[in-house]
Amino acid sequence: MRVKDVMHKGVDWVSPNTPVSELAKLMREQDIGCIPIGEDDRLIGMVTDRDIVCKGLASKDFDPRRTMARDVMTEGIHCCREDDDLAKAVHHMEKLQLRRLPVINKSKRMVGIVSLGDISHQASGDLLSECVKSVSAHH
């Protein structure tokens, strides 16, 4: 099975200058837990709901009107390709302890995101069990 068979398609990114309050609204409206951050036609980071809480709300200097995506995002993007074998992507997620992984095509354009939830609907029980244990382990 290929990544493209299980991923969420049609994922958009936002600018690093997007206010955190807008990110939170997008997450609520779209029922998602992360938003890719892009600049100059390339991915530069990812903001998760946890980033907003831990790097934003929990910091002493947090101001929801001034805090932007770039202030809370995790820089550096790990991706997989849409034609990758699903097991390869799952092992990549395990190794990096990632719950979500952007998916790119041959032209290096983001075409989706694969998440633990997506995997849970398609992967074998053994593969899923290993992934959840690895990804959920304390850092």
From TrEMBL:
Domain CBS: from-to ranges: 7-62, 73-130
PROSITE patterns: CBS
Keyword line: CBS domain
InterPro entries (alphabetical): CBS_dom, CBS_dom_sf, Diverse_CBS-Domain
Highest taxon of the lineage: Bacteria
UniProt xrefs under Pfam families: CBS
Protein name, UniProt field: CBS domain-containing protein
Source organism per UniProt: Bradyrhizobium ottawaense
